[in-house]
Structures are given as C-alpha cells and as structure tokens.
Amino acid sequence: xxxxxxxxxxxxxxxxxxxxxxxxxxxxxxxxxxxxxxxxxxxxxxxxxxxxxxxxxxxxxxxxxxxxxxxxxxxxxxxxxxxxxxxxxxxxxxxxxxxxxxxxxxxxxxxxxxxxxxxxxxxxxxxxxxxxxxxxxxxxxxxxxxxxxxxxxxxxxxxxxxxxxxxxxxxxxxxxxxxxxxxxxxxxxxxxxxxxxxxxxxxxxxxxxxxxxxxxxxxxxxxxxxxxxxxxxxxxxxxxxxxxxxxxxxxxxxxxxxxxxxxxxxxxxxxxxxxxxxxxxxxxxxxxxxxxxxxxxxxxxxxxxxxxxxxxxxxxxxxxxxxxxxxxxxxxxxxxxxxx
Length: 340
Prior knowledge:
Keywords: Membrane, Transmembrane, Transmembrane helix
Oligomer: single chain
Order of helices and strands: HHHHHHHHHHHEEEHEEEE
Number of helices: 12
Structural class: mainly alpha
Largest sheet: 3 strands, antiparallel
Transmembrane segments: 274-298
C-alpha cells in the first residue's frame, strides 16, 4: 500500500473541516460502493479514522487498510475542495475523473491475475520498463522543478523566447515520464493476452481507432493534443514551436514525409495548462492503482473472514464478517446479540 500520506500533504493547504458535512457525505457515498460488494466496512469507522488523521490524533500506518481507505478519501476530497474553491476548473476535474476511471476499466478484467508488485510499483511512482533510463528523467525533472514554471510562463517581464525554452524542457521531461507509465501499463496488459504496442501513444490507447481500448472523446482529443505538442518540440528544424508577435505561440506537427498535420496558436497560460494536465495524468496512475489494490485487500479479507451465520432465535441466515478481534454478532432481523 501507499506510504504517501495524502492527508498530510493537503492538510496544511486545505481546510477540510470547512467542508466536514460535505466530506462525510462523500465518504458515505464511496464506502457504499464498497459495501455493496464487501462486508466488514463501516461508514462510521472510515469517517472516524479520516478525521483522526486530519486532526493528527493518530499516525498514518500504510499497512492498516482503514488508514489507507481514509488516506484515499483525503486525496479525493482534496479534488472536491480545490474545485469548489476554484483552484482547479471543471475541465481539470473531468479529466481527473475520466482518466482514473479509464485506467481502472483497462485493468479490472485482469485484476485478479495482476501481481501485487505491479500495483505497488505504480503506487510508489516509479513504474518503468527501463528503470535506469527513466531514473535519469526523474533526476532531470528534479532540477527543472526547482524553477516555478507557472511563474515563468505567466510573468510578463520574462522574454517569450525564454518561456518557450523552459516549457520545452519541462514538457519533454514530463511527457517521457508519462510515456514510461503508459508503456508499463501496456506491458502488463500484454501479459494477459492483450496486444502489445510500440512506443506510441496513439497505439497504446488506440487513439486512431474505435474499440474497447479507445478512451472517451474528451480524453482522446486531449491525448492527441499533448502528443502533437511533444512532437512539435522535436521538430526543431521545422520551427515546431515558435513565438509569433500578436498571435501567440504557434505549434506545428508534421508527418515523417513533411506533411503538416497540426497547426494552432496558444497563449503562454494555455501552454502551462497543458503541462498541468500532463501532471494530472501522471499522478492518477497512482490513485487508480491504490483504489484497485484496496479492493484486492478488502476482497481477500472477506474471503478469510466471511462466515455463514444462522440466528438461533429467529433462524435468519446471512453472511457476516467475523474478524479475529470480534466478540459478538448481531442478527440483522431480530437484533439478538450472539457471542462468538
């Protein structure tokens, strides 16, 4: 499970208690999705752990699944708060929701067969087919992150040519990390009978086709656009990305034969937005993996601790979650308490 404490990350930046009522409703809704399929989960316990972590009454332990569940709630609730406070827009929120759902749907059919190591590597944020090569990208990214790209891109004093240079370096680095995660996922799917694809975003997500691998139109158009930007950066000799006075930044993409396939003008604010969207895509691999691994842990607990129960008083029969620390069971029909 994730050792990253999302609640600690967001706690100092967001006022969770300001939205306590809404968050409790959100927790109830998500917990309900689990309780439909599994037993042994209670809204009260998840909420209790969540607010205890928020108030630092307890320390986060990544091996306790209740803590992991509450931690997941902390990240999801943060998105809701950021949206309400207009720190992210509706488009960013929609991309987040659709991307996590899309990735999960790709893996769910094979989840029982996927090794835990795969999810752990996604969660730990270093999932790559070629570890040494991508480690270099992360080291490069740390250097680039020392400069605040948003401040540079939005600062009217900074030269437009310097902005383009900084954008190219940051976007290229981030895109290669993103591709490493996409290929890591594609590689795992190929282990379970799916077709393996070459190092191409269009192939991995079938962007030019219309099949079960192809994402929604919103995701598809965004991925195609990000890929055009990445290609434009590599077209140095053809002026793939240049600043045109009074028009903005022109981005061009070409086929191998030199045919122009894409040309649009963007503001520097829009360029930064594309960089931010790429960050969202990268981070949600981790969220998706955490959600699926949490499902796996709870399912295995149900396999180990679910017991058939017949009430000796009214004869009502049910399946109950009997953890080793549990001392009694209450009949759902007549409410008689039975000692275990």
